[in-house]
Amino acid sequence: MQPSPVATSTPSGTPTTSRLEHDFLGERSISDQYYYGIQTLRALENFTITGIPLRAEPLFVEALADVKKAAALANRDLGVLDPKLAGYIAQACDRVATGEFDNQFLTDMIQGGAGTSVNMNANEVIANVALELMGRRKGEYDFCHPNNHVNCSQSTNDAYPTAFRIALNKKLVGYRESLAMLADSFAAKGEEFRNVLKMGRTQLQDAVPMSMGDEFHAFATNLREELLRIDDSRNLIREINMGATAIGTQVNAPDGYANLVTKYLRDITGLDLLLAGDLIEATYDTGAYVQLSGVLKRTAVKLSKICNDLRLLSSGPRAGLFEINLPPLQPGSSIMPGKVNPVVPEVVNQTAFYVIGADLTVTMAAEAGQLQLNVMEPVISFALFTSISYMTRACHTLREKCVVGITANAKHAEDMVRNSIGIVTQLNPVLGYETTASIAKEALQTGKSVHQIAVEERKLLTEAKWNEIFTFENLIRPHFIQ
What we know:
By secondary structure, the protein is mainly alpha-helical. The chain has three domains: about 120 residues, Fumarase C, Chain B, domain 1; about 230 residues, Fumarase/aspartase (Central domain) (Fumarase C, Chain A, domain 2, Up-down Bundle); about 55 residues, Ribonucleotide Reductase Protein R1, domain 1. Helix content is about 55%, strand content about 10%. It has 18 helices and nine strands. β1 and β2 form a beta hairpin. α2 packs across α4, α4 crosses α6 and α11 runs antiparallel to α12. The longest helix is centred in the middle third of the chain and has 37 residues. About 45% of the residues are buried.
């Protein structure tokens, strides 16, 4: 049945046409300027939670188009879809995948229905694009139907998670690159500061001397460890349940469809996707999302700790550690003249807090699954997509706006080492712990230097021995001296 054109007008009064669409709940009028249909319209009315539409994640829209194209091609090969119709659907999917119709993907990222509204948004847009390619009007679903044709051999319960995993896999590529570049920038500072002497600290107390270069190189190592965890997570989410349909029994899918559609998806996406061995388990399992969320949280915790360190090391300038200078980006106070705050480490801290909280959301949503389906996947997708986006931007911002511009206050840092009681630890192999402890106690009580007490007053070692132990090189890269 063809839709009946209905004359309407835009808010500006310009005449336009609309079409009547129906579902089993009734009929609705939809402006012909929209490619989505009645089920998307209902979703727009029902879900106004985040205000963030599906189009905000273009990789997800692209992945949905890839899934629908692979399904059309597989259904064509298996004789389920007319080859000509499958070709039109595939062409429509190609156009959607380029982003041409992103403005038609408007359903809220958090929604009820396990993602049905997202799936139908894709089905309706693709059907109407295909209809126009066929020379038909939008809504002439006798010729290309959102459910019967675009959604053929599919359910939301396999199409949505498959597209979600494809989009996650691609989104993680950009995040991994951003994190790797941040780690490289710390490594470069490690090399730049390799001969800067500073005091190491434990529990915020003076510990033993070290190289500032080693401190920054350790930041790089700490973050590079996370690259392998990202790779592990990408490997987990390459497993898909396409062909499972409603609950994993493959109801309404022809024989051979699951393997064939997975093959087409590998070809279309360029990803090494793997069909799950147990489709019933794969349809409700969200363990891979929990793993990925945990990896994001782990990296966020590390990154936040590093930012805490940068804030401490740059504290001052007169009454703090003041070992490093962060690039001054903006005035820091509306009342205190001259104050400059470590705004980039602060914003990265706050990003990390969000990601840590989002991990709890993913955990609770994963646990809330019941029987053969987890209906909470939309909030999982929202949490993971936003966490990856925010972490990607945080890594880029920290590198570009902060790390590459850090400078060392080398003389000040070295002076603090020379005046520190902590250097007495270097004398343990020569004088023993009890003696060095008494030197430390006296230095603390009197304000005298370790050198003054050990060499000048107590004459526990010669000036030559002192100089051997406390060379610049031995303080930065110590060797055992007895």
